[in-house]
Design a protein that fits this description.
heterotrimer, A mainly alpha (322), B alpha+beta (289), C alpha/beta (443), A: 322 residues, mainly alpha, Ammonium transporter fold, 14 helices, globular, B: 289 residues, alpha+beta, 3-methyladenine DNA Glycosylase II, Chain A, domain 3, Alpha-Beta Plaits, 3 domains, two-stranded antiparallel sheet, 11 helices, 9 strands
């Protein structure tokens, strides 16, 4: 034995879990939704997603390498996720320069100015999307009709379900269409079924726990369900709310972002219910037809506070005798 | 037009109301403070290092004003000058204290003290020290993980990547004592700066028996007492196989340095010696200096 | 559903290579080094000096203070010197060096293998014998057994729990001891029950040791009051508080001793030592040590006298593998990495694990991604990532409020962290600091 012994404090074994493994699992879970987008929007989906990923990874590399002068860790996969989620949150017809601007904002401002992965307060993809929505409301809400249903392509634009729900109830697609994903909307928000498949994968791989998505979805269903009991119009239909807009994408992939969500189970439940509540409130009574991203962004800001007040259940604290 | 007037009037009224409330509250809760506290605080370096033993400059200032005498109160960062200034403000006399500087009492470089194992835990001396004696045969010496560097508010101590030992930047060191507290091995000591920054000290804290210490490190103090015998001023004591030079008694004659068989006594900032020691005349000159 | 504890926990790969390997006895070398601190608490006062002749079982170190345990010579021979020697603590501490001559035992010790099941001693006599024999918790914590079996005034034990969980991966010494010495252990349990004056005892065994569960269920039929409980394999089930929770559903409050819920937990190895001490007058001078590791040629369980260098034990298991990167005294989760393999076996050495270089190195630490996995696995319901930060920034009051002193140092947090953060390194440091502050406040 020529080598010197290695000495370190215990434990001496590791689970082998890494940041990469978790990030790539999220990417795998996004594949079904991406396939649906590919089917619905054909090449456009691929182009937008590829460009967004390229922009996000590229900006991260350039900023870390040349401005922060550190060793970039783009392989950890977090920038790729931001790119994919950003692409999933925009309409297919979005001009490339707007997409680039959104990526720059998401990575450069929201993520890296706070210190990079692990230190950002807001989810970069959500913040990027909201930045674009506020800056370019026209382009961000010009939805290309799905190529599978429309006779002509890109030029035709149509309203999203939530837009229709609020402003023109007669143009609503059926619930089944919404579940499978043939209604107009952002790239990744199409198919509820595909997104749920992703959720199952994430739960199976133990990347996330059920607390955040379930509490969001349950709150939305309960809240709208109660309203529907008193006034059964489509505007309050719980299933329409569950299946439409970015709710599934947000609840499964954006609200569950490790960095910007609470640490404890109790905190997660509070965080999820608040997101669900704010989402419905914005949808029903706000100026925007969709409120998921605002709700998540708002609750991101509350996460440190939630963490502060929801300490985990300590051993011996609750059960003292028997 | 009326809208404009209403708006201006309302805002003006709110502003005036708030101002009145703020004024009343500030009057009611006004804290009577000795104005000299602020004066003293202004005279302090505002480093808030805690080297004086108080949480910050403000509480040190309050303590100075409150105390009967300034004995025992000392701002190591500002030194004598600052304390004289404080004394002048308060009309008292500052106690005289010699300016000190941090010295690292370990010379166990990678060459002198071979590494026997690889430490792979958190890069923190306190963590390593709680785990074991360290990656060399000497369990008293420097671990080189830089808790002292992290503790220094003045950027005055750095690890030399070649020796893996910390080095003190004398000009920046304020002798606040943060590194002394941070070092889990008690290697760093505050010593008098000395005339022309000349200092002699035992650069080792190994308490093992001579043979064990020497085996672990070429420049360890082996407690041989040679320096003690040669010291004309009884400045050197030996306890637990380790020599210590009392800087109150040491007259910087340098006699102990060449007799040390392991070169563990260091002399700093002295002119180079003549080639043929002993040179009694030269040494006597140093003594009187 | 098998029982287990309710908060957190992990399931690392078990890798029990040495399971089922019969206990071998190792030859006594020419010299042994017996450290004078083999327990938690003050080191022993040596009662021998250079040149003294000792026999196996002769008292050489006397316990000083309340939490301390006697130390006996494990061999017969001459005391060479009392000097500092490196031990598993990583520091050089006082030890007695003995030159071995023959293998003569103190005449009172009964070395026959016959089972002595009857014990007519009183409670006090039993406790005195245990104290005299220098028995400590042999699971690794090395807390003196006679202290543990003397509940503080005003408390009463109701239940004895025998910790036969051996939840650390790799280690099998307790398992093998249970398979080979089950009758002796059962008698040991009855003696400990008598010492505690309790009617009930539960033996908790994890379900990966089915043969031991079966064997003890058979034996327990003859002993009223003793039951065997199979537990779901979950780390750190061997932690006192976790084991009590798993078996009784009671949670020991923060800062309290197990006796506060009426339970006393006793390691199975220590129970065997109690049997030998009380029934055979044999002090604790030898124990079973597992030598194991992925590249170890013959992983095995060795009965070794205290003071034999680990090097000799490793040689018996086929020598130090070429690939060795790390040598650990104890298991991979809570064991101590050693700077040298010349250190001696002590009362707390449950095993030696040799880890190949490739697996020994930690990966570089990344920024915390706040995934909360450490919070999920912490068996004490703490927030490890917060505690690490509070320690780094020396915010001791908040660390105390967030329960840093409850940490049992099981390592589940560091094991789980996907960002490879040395959570436990810092928490352990902070725990020490905060406990110091708390002690200073009490005085």
């Amino acid at each position: 034995m020529e080598n010197k012994l290695i000495v370190s404090p215990s434990p001496h074994v590791h689970s082998g879990d890494t940041i990469q493994k978790n990030m790539y699992a999220v990417l795998i879970a996004l594949i079904p939704a991406f396939l649906v987008a590919l089917y619905v929007f054909r090449l456009d989906a691929l182009i937008i997603t590829a460009l967004a990923v390229l922009f996000c990874v590229g900006f991260e590399y350039l900023i870390v390498r040349f401005i922060l002068k550190k060793e970039p860790s783009i392989l950890d996969g977090s920038a790729i996720i931001t790119g994919v989620l950003l692409a999933f949150n925009v309409p297919t017809g979005l001009p490339v320069w707007i997409l680039a601007l959104g990526s720059l904002f998401a990575i450069g401002v929201v993520k890296l100015t706070f210190g990079g992965l692990g230190n950002n307060i807001f989810n970069p993809a959500i913040a990027g999307r909201i930045f674009l929505l506020i800056s370019f409301p026209a382009q961000m809400t010009t939805w290309a009709a799905p190529e599978t249903t429309a006779a002509t392509t890109d030029a035709v634009s149509s309203a999203t379900v939530l837009g229709a729900l609020k402003f023109a109830p007669e143009t609503m697609p059926s619930l089944m269409e919404m579940f499978l994903g043939t209604e107009p909307g952002s790239l990744g928000e199409m198919s509820v079924a595909a997104l749920l498949l992703g959720l199952i994968y994430l739960l199976w791989k133990r990347v996330i726990t059920w607390h955040i998505p379930v509490s969001i979805l349950a709150t939305v269903a309960l809240f709208t369900g109660l309203l529907y009991l008193f006034n059964p119009v489509p505007l309050y239909h719980p299933l329409i709310h569950l299946f439409s807009g970015g709710l599934m994408l947000g609840a499964i992939f954006m609200a569950t972002d490790y960095v910007t969500s609470p640490l404890t189970k109790r905190g997660m439940l509070i965080y999820g219910s608040a997101i669900g509540f704010i989402t419905v409130a914005i949808r029903l009574w706000g100026a925007y037809p969709e409120g998921v991203s605002f709700a998540i962004l708002l609750m991101n800001a509350f996460t440190p506070l939630i963490n502060n007040y929801t300490t985990p259940k300590r051993f011996g604290e609750v059960v003292k005798h028997g | 037009m009326s809208v404009l007037i209403t708006a201006v009037a309302t805002l003006g009224a709110i502003g005036a109301g708030s101002a009145a409330i703020l004024y009343l509250v500030s009057q009611k809760f006004k804290v009577e403070e000795d104005p000299r506290i602020q004066e003293v605080q202004d005279a302090l370096p505002a480093a808030n290092c805690g080297g004086c033993g108080f949480p910050g400059c403000a509480s040190f200032a309050a303590a100075c004003v409150k105390a009967e005498t300034l004995d025992g109160l000392n701002c190591p960062v500002g030194g004598q000058e600052t304390m004289d200034h404080v004394a002048a403000i308060l009309g008292r006399k500052a106690s005289v204290s010699a300016k000190k500087v941090a010295v690292v009492r370990c010379s166990g470089t990678c060459d002198e003290r071979p590494r026997l194992n690889l430490y792979d835990g958190a890069s923190n001396c306190a963590v390593a020290a709680a785990l074991y004696g360290g990656d060399t045969g000497c369990s008293f010496g420097c671990l080189g993980l830089g808790d002292c560097v992290d503790s220094c508010a003045f950027d005055a101590i750095h690890i030399n990547p070649e020796t893996m030992l910390p080095e003190v930047v004398e000009d920046k060191c304020t002798a606040c004592g943060a590194c002394v507290k941070a070092c889990p091995k008690d290697i760093i000591e505050l010593r008098k700066v000395g005339p022309k920054s000349r200092r002699i000290y035992v650069s080792c804290v190994n308490k093992d028996k001579g043979a064990v210490a020497k085996k672990a490190c070429n420049v360890a103090c082996i407690g041989c007492t040679k320096c003690q015998q040669v010291c004309p001023f009884e400045a050197i004591t030996i306890e637990n196989n380790l020599a210590f030079i009392d800087d109150d008694k040491c007259r910087l004659c340098r006699k102990c340095v060449p007799v040390c068989p392991t070169n563990s006594i260091l002399e700093l900032n002295f002119p180079p010696r003549k080639e043929t020691p002993p040179a009694p005349k030269g040494e006597e000159a140093t003594v009187t200096a | 559903m098998l029982k287990t504890f309710r908060i957190g926990g992990i399931h690392p790969k078990e890798n029990k290579f040495s399971a089922g390997m019969a206990i071998q006895t190792i030859a006594i070398p020419g010299e042994v080094i017996i450290p004078l601190s083999q327990h938690i608490g003050a080191p022993c006062q040596p009662v021998v000096k250079k040149g003294d002749k000792v026999k196996a079982g002769t008292l050489i170190g006397k316990a000083v203070g309340f939490v301390s345990a006697n130390i006996h010579s494990s061999v017969s021979g001459t005391v060479v010197k009392i000097d500092k020697a490196l031990d598993a603590s990583g520091y050089k501490r006082d030890a007695v060096f003995i030159k071995v001559e023959g293998d003569e035992w103190e005449p009172a010790v009964d070395r026959s293998l016959s089972l002595v099941s009857e014990c007519r001693l009183t409670q006090k006599e039993i406790l005195d014998k245990i104290a005299a024999a220098g028995i400590v918790g042999m699971g690794g914590a090395t807390f003196p057994t006679h202290v543990k079996l003397t509940p503080p005034p005003g408390t009463k034990a109701e239940l004895l729990i025998i910790n036969a969980v051996e939840c650390e991966p790799y280690l099998t010494s307790d398992h093998q001891l249970m398979m080979e010495k089950s009758d002796e252990i059962m008698v040991g349990i009855t003696i400990v029950m008598k010492a505690l004056n309790v009617e009930k005892a539960i033996i908790g065994i994890e379900n990966n040791k089915r043969d031991a569960i079966e064997q003890f269920r058979q034996k327990a039929k003859a002993y009223p009051g003793i039951t065997v409980e199979a537990l779901k394999v979950q780390y750190p089930q061997g932690g006192e508080k976790q084991l009590i929770d798993a078996l009784t559903g009671r949670q020991v409050p923060s800062g309290a001793l197990p006796i506060s819920v009426g339970a006393v937990v006793q390691n199975v190895g220590s129970t065997f030592a109690v049997y030998e001490a009380v029934q055979k007058n044999k002090p604790l001078v030898e124990r079973v040590v597992t030598i194991t590791g992925k590249d170890v040629k013959q992983p095995c369980n060795i009965l070794s006298r205290v003071g034999i260098p680990l090097n000799n034990l490793i040689a018996m298991a086929g020598g130090v593998p070429e690939t060795t990167g790390k040598v650990i005294s104890g298991g991979p989760m809570m064991g101590k990495a050693l700077a040298s393999i010349d250190i001696p076996v002590t009362k707390g050495t449950s095993g030696v694990l040799i880890v190949p270089t490739l697996e020994a190195k930690r990966k570089a630490m990344k920024d915390c991604i706040r995934c909360g996995k450490c919070v999920d696995v912490c068996p004490m319901g703490l927030n490890p990532t917060l505690l690490m930060n509070l320690t780094e920034y020396e915010v001791w009051d908040r660390a105390e409020k967030n329960g840093i002193t409850d940490c049992i140092e099981c390592g589940s947090c560091s094991y789980t962290c996907p960002a490879d953060r040395p959570l436990l390194d810092y928490i352990r440091l902070g725990k020490g600091k905060v406990m110091g502050i708390v002690r200073a406040r009490k005085n």
